Amino acid sequence: MASIDTTALEHNLNQVRRLVGNAHIWSVVKARAYGHSLRAALKGLSKTDGFALLDIDDARWLREQGWTGRLLLLEGLFRYEDLASAHDLGCDLVVHREEQLDWLEDAKKTSLKLFLKLNSGMNRLGFLPEAYRLAFHRLHALGYSVNHLSHFANADRVDRSPSVGDQMECFTQTIEGLPSGETCLANSAAILWHRNALGDWVRPGIMLLGISPTGIAQDIAHAGLKPVMTLSSEIIAVQDLKAGDCVGYGGRYQAKQAMRMGVVACGYADGYPRHAPDGSPVWVYGKSLEQTGVICPLAGQVSMDMITVDLTNAPWAQVGYRVELWGRHLPVDDVAIKSQTIGYELVCAIAPRVPVEII
Ligand SMILES: *Cc1c(COP(=O)(O)O)cnc(C)c1O
Q1: Domain count, the chain
Q2: Mean pLDDT of 232-246
Q3: Annotated catalytic, 30?
Q4: Which residues span the domain enclosing 254?
Q5: Are residues 200 and 302 in the same domain?
Q6: Cα–Cα distance, 198 to 196 (Å, whole number)
Q7: How does pLDDT run across 79-104, given as a tens digit for each residue?
Q8: Which atom, in ligand 1's list, is nearest to the CA of 156?
Q9: pLDDT (tens digit, 9 = 90+) per residue, 20-65?
Q10: Is residue 132 classed exposed, middle or buried when 0-12, 13-18 and 19+ CB atoms within 10 A define those classes?
Q11: Does the annotation mark 117 as catalytic?
């Protein structure tokens, strides 16, 4: 079960506010709010200035739930047919390629607010500087209100190019002298580590969930963020192993001495990483939910519906004991790093079959 703590979301949004001063906040809730569910995001982030997402159906859903604040489609329109719905739903649009300019010219829905996207060095989406200025003038002449947006490739690290400084220089030069527009720049990493590169609007995603943009939990310890998702399950069997016994598919883990192995009802079909190695941390609760628990190492290949955990550290644990795969007691970053990935990937991959509880 994935428990989503909406008070933690609210707390994290307040922390972001503290960091960004007067900047407005687009809370980025693409990919079902990174696996946390749009419903929970709406509840916990109701004080945000706007929601940024990809899918127009999600925008419609938020409107149906009564959201009257701003909405931003982060990749703009995928098809011309969606322009009318975007307009009717009152979505702001990112504009990142020529075809979208043609659509906007055809439709003349000039009440749409636009965020023109500059490719300032990441080379993923957006117009290069010269094309950017042309696009700006074209939209401006049509009567659209046009804002300026770009995205950083390396706000979470210092040893790669382009740096935030390089991209800021490109951005500032490109928009210089253009007649109007608010700016929109920072993702979570920039909010945390590049406070001079925020823009009038910021776009935090992962930090709202209390997860580190770098993949290292310690890196965000200073920011006072709380984990939002707790993925938990329980022990459904215990095996008493003798020295030499092997566990699970491929017999990847072999007991060195007599030991107890807990079988936990959570596997890769729930979104637990199949490539998690032995030693990946699993939190086994104490005798009551209040009594804290202990970290036990994963031991053996992750299966579709189960993992196996060495219970040496938790001699009290029996069938029925609760286990936390990540969350309140165990940062998802600590699990992800063992599987050579980042928290983003694990929470986004939470499978539809996992029941979600919003608290
Ligand atoms: C996903 C996304 C964000 C949020 O990034 P985080 O690292 O989760 O803060 C911001 N801007 C754009 C364009 C995005 O696609």
Answers
A1: 2
A2: 98
A3: yes
A4: 229-358
A5: no
A6: 6
A7: 999 999 999 999 999 999 999 999 99
A8: 7
A9: 999 999 999 999 999 999 999 999 999 999 999 999 999 999 999 9
A10: buried
A11: no
